């Protein structure tokens, strides 16, 4: 079967495509490099063995991150669709309802987009605040009081104008980009923003290295504590960081790979994306801890005595305080919050593209129709839930359940169904090797199909037990039941409902390319050139 025949079987309308390999790689890196690289990795590394953390981090990258990334690429590229389409075609006639796993991933992206956009709006606001250091001397009080006006856990309808206005602007920008489609919208923004991000953040890192006390900060980060390697929690932290950082297992890379041309290299670009993402994380660690070293020096304390080394606290409390004290602080703040906003926006586009693509394929919508309808609904919900005085608490709770329960559960189920129940490992491996220059062997099947589900399953059980027994953040049990477990319940119910709705055009007449040879080949055997015409 020729590639053109396979495309005709896929859909009546031509499928959108990246303009080439560079556009795909930049877009995939733009998705992977996000807020977590800047505000999560440095603190996680510091708290889990410092320099010694690089060992479990690299092990996790090679044994789980890259194998699952390749699995996502294989699913999206072979079955030519967003997550619901890909999983339905993976299940074939036996398990068409596996489409629901794809919708589960779409709903994860939908919810993440609702609050992720808010953080980008905060970063954009702080970018403006950097010009006059508006946060003053009490950065914690400014964030929770003047800026966010944080109230008690609950559902508030008291809107915060300082959050509402930039939030709406970010949503409008995202809708416009998505409406232009994959190549003219998402790819074009990544081609512009990613180089700008690298230049801005590199300038920030170079500046931080010349601050007094920078060496102490770097020593705090990179001095190895090899005893920490005996702690299973350190290894779990490494797998968690890799897993959440690479944008894997919740539909993004499945969707992105589906826009690649039939004869497109998958594994080599995957390695580029994975190591580029990790390189940026290490660069972020250097910049963040060099700056924290300066902050500790100014206060006359050790780096270990500082608070707010990860997440919201690091970005919106600690860093503004540092900017206020350092020479040329406004410029440093502009670079930092500008980088944060750009990294967040490119990742947001990838999350929203998963949702848009799923609805386009299911209901026969154009990119403009899907972007407008999905975007407007998302914007309204985002404003109602996260632009109010209860927004920060809601964000913290929903994010914890979406990431630690939703995404991990999705990854475990994908591995179990693809490898254990359907036995599609050899077919997916064959597909990767048929189109790629870097070929994967049986080790990939072992890592993606056995090790990753087991490790992630253990993480999932551990996290569920912790949330049930200890709760989260000191928030009331009723609030965690509604905003935490309720979020996971929403994923399940929405996935079931969307699976039950009829398709505008049935995706079941599809035939994968390249076809598997009649005789069971070695999974690493490539098709003849005639079969790839």
TrEMBL record:
Membrane topology: Multi-pass membrane protein
UniProt entry tagged with the keyword Iron: no
Keyword Transport part of the UniProt annotation: yes
A Pfam family of this chain: SNF
Subcellular location: Membrane
InterPro entries per the UniProt record, alphabetical: Na/ntran_symport, SNS_sf
Region entry Disordered, spans: 508-533
Superkingdom of source: Bacteria
SUPFAM superfamilies: SNF-like (SSF161070)
Regions that span the bilayer: 21-39, 51-71, 103-129, 159-180, 192-214, 234-259, 271-297, 331-355, 376-395, 401-422, 443-461, 481-501
Keyword terms: Membrane, Transmembrane, Transmembrane helix, Transport
Main location as per UniProt: membrane
NCBIfam families: Na_transp
Listed name of the protein: Sodium-dependent transporter
Organism field: Agromyces tropicus
